[in-house]
Amino acid sequence: MAVCVALLGGESSGKSTLAQALERHLNDIHGLRAVCVPEHLRAWCEARGRAPHAHEQAAIADEQTRLIDRAKHAPGVDLVIADTTALMVAAYSALYFQDDTLLAPSLAAQRTCDLTLLMGLDLPWTPDGLFRDSPAVRDATDSLLRRELQDAGIAFQTVYGQGDARLQQALRAVGTALGRPLVKEDPALANGLRPWSCDNCSDPDCEHRLFTGLLSRNA
Question: At what angle are helices 40-48 and 57-72 packed, to 10 degrees?
Answer without folding.
Answer: 130
